[in-house]
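ugh ok so i messed up the first submission bc i forgot one of the chains. this is the corrected input, ALL of the components this time, i swear. 259 residues overall. if the numbers dont match what u have on ur side tell me asap before i send this to the collaborators (the ones from the other lab, u know who)
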Amino acid sequence: MNNNSVTCVAIGSEGDIVEARQKGRELSKQIGFGLTDQARIATGISELARNILLYAGSGQVILNIVEIEGRRGIEIMAQDQGPGIMSLEQALTDGFSTSRGLGVGLPGTKRLMDELYIESTFNQGTVVIARKWIN
Amino acid sequence: MEIPILKIHDTLIVSIQVDLSDELVLLLQQNLLQQISQTEARGLLIDLTAVEIVDSFMSRILTETAHMAQIMGTNVALVGIQPAVAMTMVELGVYFKNIPTCRNLEKGLDYLAAIQTPERGVST
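and heres the new structure output, hopefully the right one now
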């Protein structure tokens, strides 16, 4: 894995959400994703970054080019030291939201990406890893 | 940075050309409603031709804005939504519920002209 390809965006304000999704779009374009996948990736990043801001106040989005078994793709890691997710099952259910949002953030991002994993510890934080592969 | 709102006859047109932060989407909402009130515009077209992503926040605020404009008596349409945006929105699970959409600005103007009957007292 090439370390030069790691992009880290600190999330602490609304402007950071825009920066994170733009960097994600650039990176996905650069490694050969088509227009629709670029939109999927940028939108997924936007949702994950907003979740950080909304629930934890701050955190970071780390973008990485991944290559496993000849497949190439992008990995988004969204991490925070926030309160954690009470119920992962509920968080992945459409329409469920503990904020005023639409409740589509996590389940929607899961649909936009190829893989999505969540690790969350009460009062310690949350890490979401999402990957999209080039077809 | 404010998004310019144009007025042509009694239609307001706003074309979103930049990647809008949450803050700017809310500012646009406020400015649009203010313009509707000040200009007594009868129609509003929001052009999304240059918009590359619509996430859950933006879809919610745009939907709300369109409903607010409708409540104020304005006919609204969202125009120019790109294929990648349409695909992403549906997969994400967000929709412009009960908001008319048109393929492009021209079709949007045709739509408004078709649904807006002439002002009372104006001969046709």
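quick check: Chain A has one domain: 3-133. that seems consistent at least. Chain A touches chain B through 27 residues (CB under 8 Å).
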